[in-house]
Design a protein that fits this description.
The complex is a heterodimer of chains A (188) and B (264). Chain A has helices spanning 5-29, 36-62, 75-85, 90-115, 122-148, 157-169. Chain A is an all-alpha fold. In chain A, α1 runs antiparallel to α4 (90-115), α2 packs antiparallel against α5 (122-148) and α4 (90-115) runs antiparallel to α5. The longest helix of chain A has 27 residues, at 36-62. The A-B interface holds A 23-24, 26-28, 30-36, 39-44, 46-51, 54, 57, 68 and B 3, 19-23, 58, 61-62, 65-66, 68-69, 72, 76, 79-80, 83-84, 86-87, 89-91, 93-94, 97, 107, 117.
Chain lengths: 188, 264
Amino acid sequence: MGLILREKAEHLGTFRWLGVFLMETLARWVPTTPEMEVKVLMGRHIWDAAQHADALGKRTFELRAPLHYTLAPLSPYVEFLKDIASVDDTSGRVQAVYDVLLPALSARYQEYLKGSDSLLDEPSFRVLHGILNDYARMRQESDALREELKGTLAFDLGRAEEWRRKEAEFGEVVPRGSGATLAAGAHA
Amino acid sequence: MNITAKRKTVQGIQLCADPAREACFHVAQNDNEMQVFEDNMSEAARRERLHRHMNNEMGALEIAAQCLADFPDAPWDLRMQLARQASDESRHVAGLYRRLRQLGGRKGEFPIGNFEWAVTNMCDTLAARLAIQNRTFEAGQMDLLGALRKIWRSVGDEATAEVLEHILADEVNHVRFANRWIRTMVQEDRRLLLKVAGAIRFLAETNAALSAGLGGAPSDTPKKHAELGINVEDRRHADFSDDEINEILRQAGMSTLVGAEGRP
C-alpha cells in the first residue's frame, strides 16, 4: 500500500530538512574552502538547495501540514550527515555533496515517487521532478569543475565509496507519526 | 571553531580573520600593499581592477553564505534572499574571472584585500551585518559601478562595461532587500537599532584608524564617493529614502546637488 496523506507530509517535511541541511552545509563551506572555482560552484548551488526547500515547504502546507513544515530525519541518519559535513578538505567536500549526498537523496526521492500517486499527488511529483533535474545539472557542473581543476584536486575514491556504502545501509530515514497527527517534534 | 570567531590584528584593530584563499593569492592587510598604476586604465591597470573586483565579489559571496550559516533562525524569506545573493555573487566572480582571462590576466596576478569580510563578520546580529555589507559596502559598490561602466565604455571596452551593468542590476536587489529587512527587524525589536548604529560606528572608526596609518582602508569612503559620484537613481531603486540620499550627498561634499525641496 502507498503512503497516506500524513506520511506524504512527513516525507516532504523531511526532504525539506535535507534541503536546508544541504544549503547550510554549502554555506558553511564557502568561506573555508580555498579554491575560488569551488566556492563559485557551491555558492550557486546554495540557491538551488534553498529553492528546493522552499518548494517542498510550500507543498507541505498543501498537504495540511504547517507552511515550511520541517522534520529532522531519524537521528542515526542525522549523525551520518553531520559526520560527512565535518570533512574539511576540498576534494572530500566535493565528493560528499556530488558523489554521495545528491545521488543518495535522488534515490530516496525516487522511492517516494514510487510510493505515491502521480495523479492525486501530482504537485509533489512536479516539485520532486524539478529537484531531480536540478541535482543532475548540479552533478554535471561538478564534473565540469573537476575537469577544469584536474591536476589541482586529488580525489580519494575509497572514501567516497565508504560513505556511499554507509548511506545505503540506512533504510527508512523519515520519522513517522502514530495516528492522525503529524510526527512529534515537527515545527514550521 | 566558527570561522567568524577567529581574529587578526591590523594596525592595532581586532578584525575577523581572513577567509580561505588559494596559495596563489597575496592577501594584503593595508591599501599600501595593493598595486596601483600611474595610468589607471593601462592594460595592467584594467586587469588589476577586474582582479580586485573579482575578489570583492568573492568576499560578498562569503559574507552572504556565512550569514546563512550563522543565523539559522532568521525568517525563511530573508534566508532565501541571502541564498539568492550568494548565487548572484558567485556568478559575478565567474563573470569577472572570465573577463580577466580574456584580457590575459590570471588568479593571483595582483594582491587582494578582505576588508569587507573582516569588518562585517565582527557583528553578531544579522541586522548589523546587512547594514554594513549590503546597505553600506554594496550600496557604495552601486555608486562605483554607476561611474565605472561609463569609464570602461569610454576606453572602448564594451564587454567589461556589460559585465558591470549586470552586476549593478543584481547589487540593487541586494541593497533593497537589506534595506527592507533592516526596517522590518528594527520595527520588531528596537534594540537592534543600537546594534546597527554600533556596527556603523565600528566601520567608521576602523576606516578612520586604518586611513590614519600608512595606506588607508580599502573600502568605499566619502572621499571616493566625491570622486566618482553618488548613483542616486539606483539608490532610489534600492529603497533609500530621499533623506538618506541627501545625507550621503552631504557626506560626500555634494550638498549643492540637494534640491531646494530636499529631493536630490
